[in-house]
Specification:
Aminopeptidase; Alpha-Beta Plaits; 2 domains; eight-stranded mixed β-sheet; four-stranded antiparallel β-sheet; 16 strands; about 35% helix
Length: about 400
Amino acid sequence: MEHLKSKIQILAKENISEIIEIRRHLHAHPELSFEEYATSDFIASKLKEYNIPFKQGIVKTGITALIEGRNPAKKIIALRADMDALPITEINNTSYKSINTGVMHACGHDVHSASLLGAAKILNELKNNFEGTVKLIFQPGEEKLPGGASLMIKEGVLENPRPQSILAQHVFPSMETGKAGFRSGMYMASTDEIYVTVSGKGGHAAMPADYNNPLLIASQILVELNKTFMQQKQKTPSVLAFGKIIGNGATNVIPDEVKIEGTFRTMNEEWREEAHLKMKMQAEDIALEMGGTCNFRIERGYPFLVNNEAVTLKARTAAEIYLGKENVEELPLRMTAEDFAFYSQLLPACFYRLGTGNKAKGITSGVHTASFDIDEKALEIGAGLMAWLAVNELAD
């Protein structure tokens, strides 16, 4: 395996210019969730160039491909990358700045896809050096419910052939380039979207006897829900947060209704179900007590993401060999969510982090910000490490 590791490192270094070029092309041409048509065609063109057989058009823009080594049926594993961008206007001044106004690869999915293409090229060149099959999954719509992962699974992405495990990486701007992070077991939270309409009775602000202010009802609901969930937070990691409230009145106009939007996240499925009922009942009861009504709708999102202990330990050990033990870190629990969780509920999975920051160069902006960027040296590690983890996962 030492000889194979050296070959992968050499190929990753030799291909770095191409991987950077791929990433820059994707970054300059971002597309929103489930609209990644040009992105899909570009990725397909690269797979065709590498002579890797692929299938396009899964959930419209998704792609799967197969790299078969010796004895291809011996073991099958999957590598996944997402492709969609975010509705953010980029403020960076680079040669590869987004040309699609209001759309930006601010979560690193361009890096994920470029790294997977780089890993694919490496693995395809070395396919006579390992046994088994690597299934590549280029996935649309990670950023938008119900999540491209869930839809690809429904369309059979985990069948024909069915992988025995699955791995994916995600950029981590707060970690220096050259490092990677792993965590076994529970890692990321489930996520649900909350949409609330509180109805009262509008009127002239100077005539309080004639109206029932839904803003006050909504305020009471928010305060009481926050109290309840702050208490529960001590028992189970949870987040209940509301980031949008619209009461379209005026200084002297009381509206008839108020709309609120928020998110609920947790790492316990039993509590998740209980919380859904509890929130709805509490909000409706408060509204009723205050003479109004409340429509409390929860749009169920991604489940929690769990990293299989055996697969993750194997991947972490392999990463330590590839990068050096000092460059592999333990990751903390995160209340953020990822639709890779759908795969992790069905297959032994490992979702790890790739360091992409560089404080010395001022590359520190977080994901989902208009100034997000990466140290492009991370692409050599992203492609090489993913190829190395794949051949290690295939090995007995």
